[in-house]
Design a protein that fits this description.
single chain
């Protein structure tokens, strides 16, 4: 089963305005949550530019990999 069927990517911006209009210190929260039980598996709190790059990578991997492959690749990458 593909990872995007097992996990949900949630991105929460640190401010209401678009990234290009926001303050330099804005941080966005990124979570990968299990669809089955709603538990967060991975979590990042990053500056907006870094968060945008990470979200692109995560989305690509969610579509391309199976659920166990995805988790094995990204587990521990969240700094927790």
């Amino acid at each position: 089963m593909r990872a995007n069927r097992s996990y949900r990517l949630i991105v929460t911006p640190g401010a209401r305005e678009p990234r290009f209009m926001s303050e330099r210190g804005r941080h966005d929260r990124i979570e990968v949550v299990s669809i089955d039980d709603g538990e967060p598996l991975l979590y990042w709190d990053l500056p907006a530019r870094e968060a945008a790059r990470l979200v692109r990578e995560l989305r690509e991997d969610l579509v391309a990999m199976s659920a166990p492959e995805f988790l094995a690749l990204w587990e521990g990458a969240d700094g927790a």
